């Protein structure tokens, strides 16, 4: 797969992220990879560079390296990985990887609202310890749970993502939080909550993908797409008004 000439800063960011992508995976770990396996990093570079050239509005956004990397591990094909990446970025998750990341910022707030509705005690507790939702959920959404959950579990989530769209991301988030509700409530400071959110994505619950996926469709209960879209619309409108107000303030003479 060949890509045209990239902007130098885009090329530099992609190359910087290559060794950070699945560093413990034998195919991406430069130190343990064979000469043939080492080609995975070069394949990943070509997929990311080709997509950045193909879609300059997105270019390259950190997080795409994990998405494209997992696609390569599954498909073993640069071309297939490129087209699947295009579907995810442009169809399944529009505006997640735009320069402003409006889509992913909105969806992190949507998850917060869903937790507030379904688990108000958890929402209140996390607010009381001063934990912004962006701290605990940015990687969930940006990496689509790749490099967050065990690979087999992440792939099962991606099956649902391609089939039914982004609603599965909220189901997974709600399931992880609901499953560890009592542990979260026992945390009484910022640091312990952050550590718990890291640990709970690698415990036995997350490791057994079949049981995990059954719980993903059980723990959150009813989750209608129409409700998610209403929350997205409301939050997006709030963001728009906030930006307009900020722009207006900046134009007001002192």
UniProtKB/TrEMBL annotation:
Pfam families: RabGAP-TBC. It comes from Laodelphax striatellus (Small brown planthopper). May act as a GTPase-activating protein for Rab family protein(s). This is Growth hormone-regulated TBC protein 1. The lineage of its organism: Eukaryota, Metazoa, Ecdysozoa, Arthropoda, Hexapoda. InterPro entries: Rab-GAP-TBC_dom, Rab-GAP_TBC_sf, Rab_GAP_TBC_domain. Residues 1-165 form the Rab-GAP TBC domain. PANTHER family: GROWTH HORMONE-REGULATED TBC PROTEIN 1, RAB GTPASE-ACTIVATING PROTEIN 1-LIKE. Keywords: GTPase activation. The keyword Transmembrane does not apply. It comes from the Eukaryota. One of its GO terms (molecular function) is small GTPase binding.
């Amino acid at each position: 797969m060949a890509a045209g000439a990239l902007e130098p800063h885009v090329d530099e960011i992609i190359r910087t992220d290559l060794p950070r992508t699945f560093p413990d995976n034998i195919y991406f770990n430069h130190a343990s990879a064979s000469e043939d396996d080492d080609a995975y990093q070069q394949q990943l570079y070509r997929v990311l560079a080709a997509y950045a050239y193909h879609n300059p509005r997105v270019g390259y956004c950190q997080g795409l390296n994990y998405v494209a990397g997992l696609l390569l591990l599954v498909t073993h094909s640069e071309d297939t990985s490129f087209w699947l990446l295009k579907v995810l970025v442009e169809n399944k998750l529009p505006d997640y990887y735009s320069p402003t990341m409006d889509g992913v910022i909105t969806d992190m707030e949507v998850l917060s609202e869903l937790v507030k509705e379904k688990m108000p005690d958890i929402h209140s507790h996390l607010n009381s310890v001063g934990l912004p939702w962006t701290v605990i959920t940015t990687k969930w959404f940006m990496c689509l749970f790749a490099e967050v959950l065990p690979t087999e579990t992440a792939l099962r989530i991606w099956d649902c993502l391609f089939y039914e769209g982004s609603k599965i991301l909220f189901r997974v988030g709600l399931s992880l939080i609901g499953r560890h509700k009592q542990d979260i409530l026992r945390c009484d400071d910022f640091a312990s909550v952050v550590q718990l959110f890291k640990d709970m994505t690698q415990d036995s619950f997350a490791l057994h993908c079949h049981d995990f996926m059954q719980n993903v469709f059980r723990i959150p209960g009813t989750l209608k797409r129409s409700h998610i879209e209403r929350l997205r619309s409301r939050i997006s409108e709030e963001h728009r008004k906030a930006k307009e107000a900020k722009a207006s303030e900046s134009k007001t003479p002192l």
